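Whether sequence alone determines local backbone shape is best considered at the level of individual chains. In the encoding step, the backbone of a single protein was reduced to a row of integers, each denoting a local shape. For completeness, the protein is quoted in full, as a sequence line and a line of structure tokens.
***
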Amino acid sequence: MSEAAETARLMDTIYRHQRHFYDLTRKFYLLGRDHLIEQLDPPAGGAVLELGCGTGRNLIAAAKRYPQVRFYGLDISQHMLDTAATNISRAGLSDRISLIQGDAANVSATDAFEVSGFDRVFYAYTLSMIPIWREALGAGAAKLAEGGQIHVVDFGQQGQLPVWFRKVLFKWLQSFHVTPRADLKRELEKISEQTVSDLMFQPLYRGYTDYAELVKCR
């Protein structure tokens, strides 16, 4: 079994039942997602891609905030995509949000969308769950249009929070196969250099969350 197929099987196993109450529970500790959506600010008529879209919660919120933009979502879990499709349909946004199953680390996984370049690509608490997360970042960068932006929000290293809190949180996250990426800033710096992009990296909530923007120069 390929690594992508094994990851898909694992994610479907984890979220087969959790997807039904995922959004109700995650809102209490997946901090910074709404901040990311507020900062997207895509151009009218633009295209925005979320890699690891899960239940579609972020796509729906972003589509409501930016009504002149098309949105696209990819997830490796078919169970999550089924829930996302249902949620998007209920929100009346099926005409503006398109979904596809695929591996976020595969640069060709979004080719079926037939979008030459995305104005925004974002990752919301996704990279900490993708085994080959560096490749997933690279895949998103490869799909950026000129002047496009990557936005990332994910678990930070809890640098300004009590040590006991960090230990408890990391152990609990590990049970869900979630690993906060200590090298996230360094990896984004590498991509910034390779793609001639400007990088902004900002810990939020005393280091609980890391937020980053990478802007590809024209």
In short: The longest strand covers residues 144-155.
